[in-house]
Write a structure and sequence with these properties.
The chain has about 400 residues and is α+β, with helices and mostly antiparallel strands. Helices cover about 35% and strands about 20% of the residues. The protein has eleven helices and 17 strands.
Length: about 400
């Protein structure tokens, strides 16, 4: 149970809440940014995969995968700035002419830059770059978040080339996290743990979700992370898995759900805690305990070599036996049990029926079997794990009880 702090009155403002909120003791993991040596190893791995899949090159638009391979964060404007990873040869950037100096200031790996003027076609320059490498035809892999006008432009410019999915390269590389990536994610989770604790400590009768979200956002920033999100809901709104637009004013007996995340050097956290403001009812306690058992069942099903869907089956099975569902029906668990996570908050490796992908060392994903009861309340406990040789390890330790959201 979460009681109002004696020193917080319902009338005080956000700045006063921030200055008086007590924080729980927790150390934050030390982690270093991704090195250029690791990025070069990623490119080398991509080239091996390109050759294995008979793809002549991978084209990267501005976005997460460009950052993953090159360390370059670039705004995705209508003026295409692309990177070409050929199956053999040097990484090449295709850049607007007037942006070259700015690009070179930001480069971490690769030095080859080819530019195009405003009256020229950047996609023709991409194709010319490939032909200069001795590639007259073949399959060009396109990373999945590449905008349509780019893939369409490449297809028009390269009549002898076939545009195909670059997933066998980009997804295969990004799915398995290195120790350096896991350390950054651990740091992000450590920070979000503290930020949620600050949010819970700031709960006071009459407050709004926005006030608590602001407390969490400020704590993320104070601890050196880039704030990502803080979805806070009260009462009936907690039965909406992704929040509600209804007006919410915190009252005694309300369920409170806090779903939050931040980013540290490009890597994400994602943690959800559900508590009760005041004395919980027996039903709230029972549903919370059921949720905890479902989360633990999902964790125990995360066995190396087993399909991802087993995590969903195990967690969902606990809820169905208790009378919820079945399947995705409400009241119950209306969404997958977990999602992959890394540089994006939601990545591949979903814990969902039909995903036969075997669990492998280095995979990272959430376990969050929400229980949603329309018209009443919802409970979600979300923590992320990473797979090791010994099995899954928690980034954040699960809640011990409804009255103790963190260890």
């Amino acid at each position: 149970m979460i009681h109002r702090r004696d020193f917080i009155k319902s009338s005080i403002g956000l700045s006063a809440i921030l200055s008086t909120t007590p924080y729980f003791s927790k150390s934050i993991t030390e982690a270093s940014p991704i090195s250029n040596e690791e990025r070069l190893a990623r490119i080398a791995k991509a080239q091996v995969l390109l050759q294995k899949n008979n793809i002549v090159a991978l084209i990267l638009d501005a976005g997460t995968s460009l950052n993953y391979f090159t360390g370059l964060a670039w705004y995705p404007s209508e003026r295409s700035m692309l990177a070409i990873i050929p199956a053999k040869g040097e990484l090449t950037y295709i850049c607007p002419y007037f942006e070259e100096d700015r690009l070179r200031e930001l480069l971490k790996v690769g030095t080859e830059v080819r530019t195009w003027h405003e009256d020229e076609n950047p996609f023709e320059l991409c194709i010319k770059t490939l032909t200069d490498l001795g590639l007259a035809k073949g399959q060009i892999g396109i990373e999945e978040q590449t905008r349509f006008f780019i893939s369409n432009g490449l297809q028009k410019a390269g009549k002898n080339f076939q545009i195909v999915s670059g997933d066998p390269i980009s997804v295969t590389c990004r799915l398995i996290k290195s120790p350096a990536e896991i350390a950054l994610m651990q740091k992000a989770n450590d920070i979000t743990t503290l930020a949620i604790q600050a949010g819970i400590a700031a709960l006071t009768q009459g407050c709004t979700p926005r006030q608590i979200s602001q407390v969490i956002a400020q704590k993320h920033s104070e601890l050196g992370a880039q704030h990502g999100f803080a979805s806070v809901t009260f009462g009936v709104a907690t039965s909406f898995p992704h929040g509600s637009s209804r007006k919410q004013i915190l009252q005694k007996g309300d369920v409170v759900m806090l779903d939050c995340g931040c980013q540290v050097d490009g890597y994400e956290s994602d943690i959800t805690r559900t508590v009760v403001f005041g004395e919980p009812s027996q039903k709230q306690i029972d549903i919370w305990n059921l949720e905890k058992r479902a989360q633990q069942a999902g964790f125990e099903a995360a066995v190396l070599g087993a399909p991802c869907e087993n995590v969903d089956f195990a967690a969902r099975g606990i809820l169905v036996k208790a009378g919820f569902g079945p399947e995705y029906k409400l009241p119950g668990l209306p969404h997958r049990t977990g999602h992959g996570i890394g540089m994006d908050g939601h990545e591949w490796g979903n814990m969902v029926k039909g995903n036969k992908l075997p669990l492998q060392v280095g995979m990272c994903f959430s376990i969050e079997p929400t229980i949603a009861i329309p018209g009443e309340f919802g409970v979600r406990l979300e923590d992320c794990v990473y797979m090791t040789e010994q099995g899954p390890k928690w980034f954040s330790q699960p809640s011990p009880s409804i009255s103790k959201p963190f260890m």
